[in-house]
Amino acid sequence: MSFVVAIDGPAAAGKGTLARRIAEHYGFHHLDTGLTYRATAKALLDRGLPLDDEAVAEGMARELDLSGLDRAVLSRHEIGEAASKVAVMTPVRRALVEAQRRFSLKEPGAVLDGRDIGTVVCPGAPVKLYVTASPEVRAKRRLDEIVANGGNADYAAIFADVRTRDERDMARADSPLKPAQDAHLLDTSEMSIEAAFSAAKSIIDARLEQ
Ligand code: C5P
């Protein structure tokens, strides 16, 4: 049976970096499930289709090919905004969750990161991590990332954006962002990626040894 590491948390908490690091260390497959919502939103935007038509959005979600997700293209800010709008639709979530569950069965193991992995997509995962950080720290990390990539942005605007997205993700009726009851909480506000990885590794190793 494949071993699943489920990682959830708000935007820019560091879960993507942690998930990639874990996947690399254990030789597991990795899926950033945010990219599946982003790709669905982008497909609608590219075709000039509305973001609020459930049947149309579900059709796009069902056609999605998980092997063709391009992080560089999908990481644009407007796509993230649009993604959190299509992510409130139950038919879209149902379609994407089915694809994500198929991915989670890959041998020898899979790391999935998102908002509802431990609660909805893989509730039976042997390891669940809920990675968080204060909104201030998350906004600062986003800003540093943009500047490092040669862009410029305004801290206040990014901070406002982080708060809006948190609210939308936590308040939605279907699969709101929240820690699973049996998730280990990792607050990375004051933690380096190495420290976060080492904490995660201890938890995973303990489960692998059982
Ligand atoms: O993590 P990322 O910023 O790429 O996610 C984009 C949006 O997709 C999130 O704001 C959230 O609304 C949605 N999402 C979700 N469930 C997931 C992953 C992402 O609803 N498992």
Strand order of the largest sheet: 2-3-1-4-5
Helix/strand structural class = alpha/beta
**N- to C-terminal separation?**
14 Å
Annotation field: number of helices: 10
Walk me through the structure.
The protein is an alpha/beta fold and 210 residues long. It has two domains: 1-26 and 112-210, Rossmann fold (3-Layer(aba) Sandwich); 29-107, no CATH class. 56% of the residues lie in helices and 12% in strands. The chain has helices at 15-26, 33-46, 54-63, 71-74, 77-86, 90-104, 117-121, 135-148, 155-171, 193-208, and strands spanning 3-8, 29-32, 109-114, 127-132, 184-187. A five-stranded parallel β-sheet has the order 2-3-1-4-5, with helices on both faces. α2 (33-46) packs across α5 (77-86). The radius of gyration is 17 Å and the shape is globular. The relative contact order is 0.21. The protein binds cytidine-5'-monophosphate (C5P). Cytidine-5'-monophosphate (C5P) is lined by residues 11, 33-34, 37-38, 80, 83-84, 87, 114-116, 165, 169.
Key attributes of the depicted protein:
210 residues; alpha/beta; Rossmann fold; 2 domains; 5-stranded parallel beta sheet; 10 helices; globular; binds cytidine-5'-monophosphate
Short summary of the structure?
This protein has 210 residues and is α/β, with parallel strands linked by helices.
Tell me the layout of helices and strands:
Blueprint (H helix, E strand, L loop, with lengths): L2 E6 L6 H12 L2 E4 H14 L7 H10 L7 H4 L2 H10 L3 H15 L4 E6 L2 H5 L5 E6 L2 H14 L6 H17 L12 E4 L5 H16 L2
Parallel strand pairs: 1-3, 1-4, 2-3, 4-5
Bound molecules: cytidine-5'-monophosphate (C5P).
